[in-house]
User: What shape does this take?
Amino acid sequence: MTESSFDVLVLSGDGIGAEIMPHAIRVMNAAVDDSIELRLEYADFGGCSIDRHGVPMTEETLRQAQESDAVLLGAVGGPKWDDLPVDQKPEKGLLGLRSGLDCFANLRPALTFGPLSEASTLKSELVSDLDILIVRELTGGVYFGEPRGIETRDNLRRGFNTFVYDESEIERVSKVAFELARKRSGKLCSVDKANVLEVTQLWRDVVCEVHSEYTDVELSHLYVDNAAMQLVRQPKQFDVIVTGNMFGDILSDVAAMLTGSLGMLPSASLNSSNRGLYEPVHGTAPDIAGQNIANPLAMILSIAMMFRYSLDAAHVAESIEVAVHRVLEQGLRTGDIMPLDPSAECLLVGTDQMADEVIGQLKSS
Ligand code: IPM
Ligand code: MG
Assistant: This one.
């Protein structure tokens, strides 16, 4: 009997995004029982939307997204659209979607899955059991600041962007980060460049003000250059990190690589009513698209996050996460997470088989 039903908009996107999505949807359908009804709608997004509709995101697609309980997004972009001007690229659609849904808090966990600590390029003792959560501000900062552009003055071209945050933007994302830190180890590190940039001096000031409501959480601050270095030097010193849009973009790629593969990492982007956009951290990987070798686990784990944060079904999230762990424990690997040590006993599987195995685990539990 159906107890709850949800509208989920699926935007598969380009490259491996489009390739992985159908397999992740199979896993999603296998993970729910009759008590949850998922009503799926599909729309073009990114490069494929440019090809069919002339823009990376149509107004209709944004409206559909705003009316959904959650949006699943594969990945967007590729060489075919790289030469378009910045404001017509697939990435522009992604930024428009994030901001159109007001998904200001981007949660990017960097978690080392036990059986994968050998896949990291760092020594396994540095990364085994790593569990960091990066909270990246997603709808402001230099990504969205105005004025922006490229202009010619006195025959000299000049490019400019504006790095701006107002205090309400900093306050709301830091509250999300403090709440999450409170549920985890109680440690939050805020990353800025307050020694150089006024905007991030304000960031630091506001984070400190919000801290007065969360005195049980231990707050520290790092400059972004030091944070990048500390992440590769001694990553386990971190638990929750909160930072602005661009620093978060960069640090989340660093943190992702610590875990062995970008292909494993999910993300959730939430607005103030916990509706959200769920996308893997990886991109479209055009070089491997269409070969059935891409790792579907980041998309599958993003779906788990959707059940936890937007659909209030943590038990479904956990069942998916457990199934993924079991498949990895059995030694099944896509190419990106094969151990560097050739003597390790692992079995190379394709995109479809990886999803089949996760479904097999879900059914047997
Ligand atoms: C990410 C990506 C995007 C970003 C790009 C594709 C616009 O790198 O989600 O991390 O910079 O936010
Ligand atoms: Mg990025």
Observations:
- Residues 249, 253 surround magnesium ion (ligand 2) (CB under 6 Å).
- DSSP finds twelve helices and 14 strands in the chain.
- The radius of gyration is 20 Å.
- The longest strand covers residues 4-13.
